[in-house]
Amino acid sequence: MTIEQAKHLAKKQMTPRRYRHTKNVASAARALAQRWGVDPDRAELAGWLHDIVKEYTSGELLQLLGQDDIMAGLTRQRPVPIWHGPCAAIYARHTLGVEDADILDAIACHTTGRRGMTTMDKVIFLADAISAERSFDGVEAIRALGETDLDAAVLAAMENNVAYLEAKGKTLDTETMDAIAALREKA
Length: 187
Fold this sequence. Notes:
By secondary structure, the protein is mainly alpha-helical. About 70% of the residues lie in helices and about 0% in strands.
């Protein structure tokens, strides 16, 4: 799948609001990749595909999970709002023919992070968190941190997400807590 094909698919499959976000994530992913030594084309492609199934129903996501037994077993134990990451990776692999494991892994963990994140994983996670339309308190500080310390920026974005979810009384994903612990250990 080429970047142009991914753009076309995103435009066709997404609402204008989701497409604008995805375009911003792809742009941020390219810039972060260049800054942190990741192939910018691969990062941009991951950015275009990260939310490709975000607007699917939970039933459609369950159908996608049926295509990958390992991912399905892990994902079904997690809150439904984060299923779209692993499901987007399944869709990219089985429907679009993307075989690059780094791209697929980055797509799969773009919402939660994971212990042992690669630089590509961090780039896509951070690009999603700081994309141009994001305006939460502290986003500018995280954007600036992303220019000087990728791990610190990802950690700050994750901690911000956790604080938001806790304030809303939402379930915290264990993958995110593991990722935060791993990043704190490195600091």
